[in-house]
Amino acid sequence: MCGCRVAACVAALAAVSVALPGAVLALDLNKLYGHHTKRSEYCHPYEPFKCPVDGNCISIQYLCDGAPDCIDGYDEDSKLCTAAKRPPVEETASFLQSLLASHGPNYLEKLFGSKARDALEPLGGVEKVAIALSESQTIEDFGAALHLMRSDLEHLRSVFMAVENGDLGMLKSLGIKDSELGDVKFFLEKLVNTGFLD
């Protein structure tokens, strides 16, 4: 570290703190003693979440627990915490892709409005919509993230409210096949149950 023994380094730091009384000094004992922190390229399965800034690995149980464990507090980020309650982005993207494959590139216009044409390209594509569904705390946040028109957002809200109230007729009126009804209802309920309509 500073080419001296531990005692000499501590003494040097003490001398600096006397010379600069208002200064706050921190001593990283792990570096001083040559210990390594949990900043490897891969995280252990028991601590699979890797903090993006400092590289520390933490247990999933410490995500969104109200106490920051990453140096920048990323493990308490509101988008991360919302996404942790929602279906994974990959699952959402796959689900949206399957609807487009079954019904054509403009099908999701029935849910998300006129910007959802051409396989969601005007909204940034399937992946961007999937991420917005995962990270947006509420339907309002989702609308803002994708720049939806107010009328499209209100239509989407009515679809979610119909699902919340058990009105499957609304989904059928959008052309959702009976064989898909259960999956669509299940997917939309996951969002509703995690506060999407709040």
Number of domains: 2
Lateral strand order in the biggest sheet: 1-2
The overall pLDDT, averaged over residues, is: 80
The largest pleated sheet is described as: 2 strands, antiparallel
Distance between the termini: 53 Å
Query: How many separate helices?
Result: 11
Shape: elongated
What's the SSE pattern? HHEEHHHHHHHHH
DSSP strand count: 2
InterPro entries: IDLSRF-like_peptide, LDL_receptor-like_sf, LDLR_class-A_CS, LDrepeatLR_classA_rpt
Organism: Papilio xuthus (Asian swallowtail butterfly)
Pfam family, one: Ldl_recept_a
Signal peptide: 1-26
Textual characterization of the structure:
This is Prohormone-4. With 198 residues, the protein is an all-alpha fold. It folds into two domains: 43 residues, Irregular (Low-density Lipoprotein Receptor); 108 residues, no CATH class. It is built from eleven helices and two strands. Strands 1-2 form a two-stranded antiparallel ribbon. Strand 1 and strand 2 form a beta hairpin. Helix 3 packs across helix 7, helix 7 runs antiparallel to helix 8 and helix 9 crosses helix 11. The protein is elongated and about 50 Å long. The termini are far apart.
